[in-house]
Every structure is written in C-alpha cells, then in structure tokens.
Amino acid sequence: MAERRGVAMQLVPAGAIFLGLFGASSVFYFIVSFWSVKLYKLHADFTFANYLKAIEQHWSVLLFTLELSFLIGVITTVLGFVFAYIIRFKAGRWGTLLLLVAVITLFGGYLMKIYAWKTILGNEGVINTALEALGLIDEPLTILFYNPGAVVVTLVHFLLPLAVLPIYSSMRGITDIEMESARDLGAGAWRTLSDIVIPRCHTGLIAAFALCFLVSVGDYVTPAFVGGTISMIGSVIQDLFGRALNQPLGAATSFIMLFASFLIVLAVSGLIKAWRPR
Amino acid sequence: MNRISDMLWRCIGGLYVVFLLAPLLLVVLFAFTNRTLAAFPIEHLSLRWWRAMLEHPQFLPALKNSLTIGSTVGVISAITGTMAAMGLSRIEPRRAQTLTAILCLPLMLPPLLLAVSLRTFYTQSAGIPLTLGTVILSHLLFTLPFVVLVVYARLRNFDYRAVESARDLGASPLHAFFTVTLPIIRPTVVGAALIAVSLSIDDFIITNFTIGGGVTLPTFVFGMIRTSLTPAANAVGTLILLMTVGATLIALRLTRYRG
Description:
The complex is a heterodimer.
Chain A: H1 2-32, E1 36-38, E2 41-43, H2 49-90, H3 95-106, H4 110-121, H5 126-133, H6 148-171, H7 176-184, H8 189-200, H9 202-218, H10 221-226, H11 233-240, H12 247-273
Helix pairs in contact in A: 2-3, 2-6, 2-9, 2-12, 3-6, 4-6, 6-9, 9-12, 11-12
Chain B: H1 2-30, H2 48-55, H3 59-89, H4 93-103, H5 105-108, H6 111-126, H7 132-156, H8 161-168, H9 173-202, H10 205-210, H11 217-226, H12 232-255
C-alpha cells in the first residue's frame, strides 16, 4: 500500500504537467473549434460552421499539403531506412560515427537548416554562383527556389535524422546470427532484406513515416522561407492565429488536418505491416 | 566483388554525411565572410558579422532569455522526469510502456498545433499573460518525454540491491535516494537534462506563439532572416548550433548513447 502510494507520488508532477497543460489545452482547443468570433472576440457557441468553412475555403490547400507531405514522408523513410541499414550492417566500425552525425543533426538547428537551403538554392545561392562561375548560365536559375521541390528537399534534410533513429533501433534487434543463418540457407541479399530486415523494422518504419509526415503537414516556416507563393495548411493555420485572427476557424482547420493525417498514417502503417516474409 | 560493394556502401554512407552536415557547415562558414551577403565568393574571413551581432540591441536580451528558459526547462524536466521514471520502473513494464506512450503524445503532434492550442489555452481560457514562464511550461511538454525515456531505460537495468542494503541499514527512502541511487544514475540524469536544454534552446515554433513580447535566440534570428538578410543571421545561427550541438555531445558521452 505504501509502495503504491510512493509510485503515485512520483508520477504526480509529470502527470500534472501533462494533464494540466497538454490535456486541458487540447480539450479547450477542441471546444473552441465550435465557438464563433464576434468583433475579434471569442464567443462561446456550438456551431459546425467553422468546420464547413474550413473545408470549403481550404480544401485544395489541405489536399496539396497532404500530397506533398506524403511524398516527403515516403522519401525520408526510404532514405532513412537505407542509412540505418548502412549503419547497422555495412559500415562496420564507422557505424558509430554515422549514427553520431544523425543524432547531432537531430537535436539542433531547425531554423538554421531552412536558412541553409535558402543560401544554397537562392538567386545568390551556392548553386547559382557556382554555375555562373563555370560559365554554364548567365542569369540565376530561378526554378531552383520558391517552389514545392525546394520545400521537399529542405524538409527531407531536416527530417532525415528523425527517420533514421527509430528504424535503426528496430534494426538493432536483428542479430547477426539471424542474418548468417538466412545466408547459410541460401537466401541472397534481396531475399534477406525482404524476408528478415524489412519485416523486423515494421515499428521503426511506421514511427519514421508518421513523425516525418506529421511534422511536414504542420510546418509553416519552410514554405514561408523557400516555398515562395505556395501555400500549405500550416501557413493557413498560423495566419488564423496572427493576421487573420480567427481562432475557432483555426482550431477547426487543425482538427480536419489532424483527422485527415491520421487516416493517411493509418493507411500507410497498414501497408507497411502487410509486408510479410513470403 | 565484396570489396567493391563494401566501398560502394561506404561511399553512400559518406554522401549521407555530406548531405546532413554540408548545409549546416555552409551557414557556419558564411558567418565569417567579410562581404554583406551570405554567399560565395568569400574574399577573406572576418569577424565583422559577429561584431554586428553583439552590437544588435536585441542580442543580449535574446541570449539571456534563451539561457533562462533553457536552464529552467532543463532543471524542471530533469527533476520531474527522473521522479516519473523512478515511479514507472516500479510498476509492471507493460503499464509503464503505455504511460510512457501517452506522455510522448505531444511529440507526435505537429509543433504548430501544440503552439496554437497552448496559446489559445493561456490567453482565452486561463487568462495567463504570455511571458517566459508560459514558454518554460510549454517546453516541458516536449522535453519531459525525452528525460523519462532516457532515465527509465537506465533504471530498467539498475541493480536495486544496493538501495535495499541502504534501506536495511536504516536509511530513509530519501536518504537512500541521495546517497545511493542518485550518484549511480547522475550521468544519465544530467545527460537527459542537457538533451532537454538543447531541444528548448533550439525551439522556434512553440516559443514564437507562447512568449508574448520577448525574444529568444531563434525568434531573434527568425526576424533577421525575414527582414535584413545579412550574415549576422549566420553568426546568431552558429551560436545556437554551438550551444545545441555542444549540449548534445556532452549528453551523448554521459548517457553512453548507442542508438
């Protein structure tokens, strides 16, 4: 009894922060999505108007964001898988160093990574000045920048470490004995990959895709810096809490975005789980 | 054959490292240019943009705020996270895992949603003015899960016999904690706290929505990139990178992270 009270006491501070802040703010945010705005003031209400308006006004932006984020999620997960595979099975003693690079780039430099791509792809950027110096072009290539491709490259670079780590931690569970027995039984490299490595990485692959996809869906800084005129749903939501102040519409848009993203994550994780050994 | 394929894999690994690091190294390099543009060619290396950064009226407040927020978040998440991890290590692993997964929910949301829902909560429901305090509270939501995960992993292979002997010899639970448990797990706790500090110092999105009027290093550099695109932004960015990468490296050494 005293033991259980002790455990409860230890969980209280973290639990209070979690429930009092995350729990309460999420519930309140959901409630606000049914409220209305009168003269820039929130008005307690119960209306679905925000949801209808959000779908009506922002449907095409949402769809575009989901497509782009899906692409980013897939590219990052595949690249992350290959990198994790190299660290675990191919790099030997260099593996630790490669892992270190992934971890270091994970915890720092969100804004700096976006800014870096601006200095690489921009009109005065590294690529354009290099091509001009080589005499290959006379005027800066404007197609490098301010387009969806620049958003994809920037976000893949930012998210790659986030994809590598969960996949790598799945791969650590695969023993060398398993790999060797597969080889001894006559399985080639591809067969081992598809029958042993990928099925054992389900959890890591799903976590990697879900994280990368969700962060991309909600990002608004990257499109603002390198995306030019393209609009993503994050930019819309951010604007609804800034210039175009309308928190209920912003909240409703958020929940539609979350729900749609959730469906996609669910579908993709179903697809990943369907990859079984033959 | 095998040697060629090994070489190939190593080359691909090298390409990954270049892809991950080169953009960041460019930002650092351009912080030392003498020209007014963060671009090639660099005529010669100079510290003029570091001086420009130091002379900017917003720099010192931003640095001070970032350090205040980062250190407070580090200390609070280390204490509450370690307590939670200790509690979790004493219940069945399966229930502990469920609780940890729930605690990790804020990490699964796009940061923007966490930011706007917290802002709405503070300003519209609780009537709390946006200050550094609201930023600190908000950061705890995404730093706590990391501390709990790291410390819990350490406690799972912790030998409790030492603590039990201390208790048998008459030490109070608190006394046993400070004289036996804490000295053993201290490197892990400090490492976890440093990860929390580095996440907190690097955060832009949640800070931007919960700070009210003040500036931190990331919101300061965001303003610089938006308005005047000078290499002073590279200097501030390099400073942020130094702080976060430095904290992460020390943390990795302390926790002996291996994936």
